TrEMBL record:
<dbReference type="InterPro" id="IPR011059">
    <property type="entry name" value="Metal-dep_hydrolase_composite"/>
</dbReference>
<dbReference type="Pfam" id="PF01979">
    <property type="entry name" value="Amidohydro_1"/>
</dbReference>
<dbReference type="GO" id="GO:0004157">
    <property type="term" value="F:dihydropyrimidinase activity"/>
</dbReference>
<dbReference type="InterPro" id="IPR011778">
    <property type="entry name" value="Hydantoinase/dihydroPyrase"/>
</dbReference>
<dbReference type="InterPro" id="IPR006680">
    <property type="entry name" value="Amidohydro-rel"/>
</dbReference>
<keyword id="KW-0378">Hydrolase</keyword>
<keyword id="KW-0479">Metal-binding</keyword>
<protein>
    <submittedName>
        <fullName>Dihydropyrimidinase</fullName>
        <ecNumber>3.5.2.2</ecNumber>
    </submittedName>
</protein>
<comment type="similarity">
    <text>Belongs to the metallo-dependent hydrolases superfamily. Hydantoinase/dihydropyrimidinase family.</text>
</comment>
<dbReference type="InterPro" id="IPR032466">
    <property type="entry name" value="Metal_Hydrolase"/>
</dbReference>
<dbReference type="GO" id="GO:0005829">
    <property type="term" value="C:cytosol"/>
</dbReference>
<feature type="domain" description="Amidohydrolase-related">
    <location>
        <begin position="49"/>
        <end position="443"/>
    </location>
</feature>
<dbReference type="GO" id="GO:0046872">
    <property type="term" value="F:metal ion binding"/>
</dbReference>
<dbReference type="InterPro" id="IPR050378">
    <property type="entry name" value="Metallo-dep_Hydrolases_sf"/>
</dbReference>
<feature type="modified residue" description="N6-carboxylysine">
    <location>
        <position position="151"/>
    </location>
</feature>
């Protein structure tokens, strides 16, 4: 067989193995692993790790975020940023606006993404209005079309579902074999805290963190677990921030429940103190995300969960807003109270370097665990395996070449996202992506985007390996 491309002399890392060998690629797929492979094109990977491209299963792109507020990324800038950060696939959300059809919303997002993406993309759904039509017809039909996971919210005025609605959505997931993702923070408790703080004149961005303490996340996490157990449906708790919620999940897992969990870079590197800024000022808005970052003890707890298997995935929750913009963090209402500061931080490009540096380089997790947490488990959980998520015969040749020794300082000026800042300005890392290949084609090289818009495809997904379809 004549190979199109051979990646030679690197160390191939998968979730299970670390092996020095060449990777042979034919027609966009991995065709052979072996020694001294010959091909029309060859890439010298000596001194580099050859890993499956990152899959970021939790990003927000071009998602409406309230009146006058705009996300900082479109599909082109978000996927370019992801590619430069070593990713070959992202899973953004198609958000249902209340009072509208879920199908119409999905088509809208697809139109925005079509021919704009540098890497592969597949959508989760966000269900905000579970009408009988949505539950009975739209969701089952969309699932058959490859939208096999959906997120529900336990907070936010425009998104929150009450307990009965959560149960009804869970029940559809159980019947159809979908994986539900849950944003677990309690709506009423947050509202109570927000109003109390505002009455006391505590409106700076920092109070965002005070308004949604760990108790609020713990309570909602426990409630979501109880509902999932009652319905008997697998569930993913996204963006877990600290010990309290994590202990609920560990308890559920120890009882054999199919409860999975995700955490993010902000919860191992930032704390609520970052929201204070130098002087309790507006610059704290740069770190406003939900759940908020906690404290260093929480970071230790999250590391414990990453090491011991409580968490299956490490995602960015990339949710980019400009800081210095009337359509971003400093919108007019946002200046009057933390309540109106859009929730979310940019991070799709820095996810892999942060976990590699803080995790692998500092000896907290193995290389194989790194690959599992950043790629393989995302593919398995969200119905993309065995096409994506590993380096093996028949997999798409989605690959990142990684320099484990390269030292970099994260700075806004080297990133490709649409935001005007990074929460990790000045953060020093060891380990950096030097080349990202999608189906054997180079998309990004040393911080330069060399691929084409439209090179990425919008994929339909199969069923989650973690939420087996009841019929099989
Ligand atoms: N939830 C997310 O998943 N992302 C950003 C904001 C939020 O609340
Ligand atoms: Zn979200
Ligand atoms: Zn969320
Ligand atoms: Zn999110």
């Amino acid at each position: 067989m004549e190979l199109d491309l051979a990646i030679r002399g690197g160390v191939v890392v998968t979730a299970s193995d670390t092996v020095r060998c060449d990777v042979g690629i034919k027609d966009g797929r991995i065709a052979v692993l072996g020694e001294r492979l010959k091909a029309t094109r060859e890439i010298d990977a000596s001194g580099l790790l050859v890993m499956p491209g990152g899959i970021d299963s939790h990003v927000h792109i071009a998602q409406p975020s309230g009146p006058g507020v705009e996300m900082a990324d479109d599909f082109a800038s978000a996927t370019a940023s992801a590619a430069a950060g070593g990713n070959t696939m992202v899973l953004p959300f198609a958000l249902q606006a209340r009072g509208t059809s879920l199908r119409a919303c999905v088509e809208d997002y697809r139109r925005k993404a079509e021919n704009e993406c540098y890497i592969d993309t597949a959508f989760h759904l966000i269900v905000s209005d579970p009408t009988p039509e949505v539950l009975g017809q739209e969701l089952p039909a969309l699932l058959k079309d490859g939208y096999t996971s959906f997120k529900v919210f336990m907070t936010y005025d425009d998104l929150v579902l009450n307990d009965r609605q959560l149960l009804d959505v869970f029940d559809v997931a159980r019947r159809e074999g979908a994986l539900v993702m849950v944003h677990a923070e309690g709506y009423d408790a947050i509202r109570y805290m927000t109003e109390r703080l505002e009455r006391e004149g505590k409106t700076a961005p920092y109070y965002h963190a005070v308004s949604r303490p760990e108790i609020v996340e713990r309570e909602a996490t426990h409630r979501a677990i109880s509902h999932a157990e009652l319905v008997d449906v697998p569930m993913m708790i996204v963006h877990v921030s600290g010990r309290e919620a994590m202990e609920q999940i560990r308890w559920a897992q120890s009882r054999g429940l199919k409860v999975y969990a995700e955490t993010c870079p902000q919860y191992i590197t930032l704390t609520a103190e970052d929201l204070q800024g130098p002087d309790m000022d507006m610059s704290g808005a740069k770190y406003v995300c939900s759940p908020p970052p906690r404290d260093t003890a929480s970071q230790d707890a999250i590391w414990d969960g990453l090491r011991t298997g409580v968490f299956q995935t490490f995602s960015s929750d990339h949710c980019p807003f400009r800081y210095d913009s009337p359509a971003g963090k400093l919108n007019e209402k946002g200046r009057s109270s933390f309540r109106w500061v859009p929730n979310g931080i940019p991070g799709v490009e820095t996810r892999l370097p942060i976990l590699f540096s803080e995790g692998v380089a500092k000896g907290r997790i193995s290389l194989n665990r790194f690959v599992e947490l950043t790629s393989t488990n995302h593919a398995k959980l969200y119905g993309l395996y065995p096409r994506k998520g590993s380096i093996g015969i028949g997999f798409d040749a989605d690959i990142v070449l990684w320099d484990p020794n390269r030292k970099e300082t994260i700075r806004q000026e080297i990133l490709h996202h649409g935001a005007d800042y990074t929460p990790w300005e000045g953060f020093e890392v060891t380990g950096w992506p030097v080349m990202t290949l999608l189906r054997g084609e180079i998309v990004a090289e040393n911080g330069r985007i060399v691929g084409d818009k439209g090179q990425g495809q919008i994929l339909a997904r199969g069923f989650s390996a973690y939420a087996p379809h009841p019929l099989i």
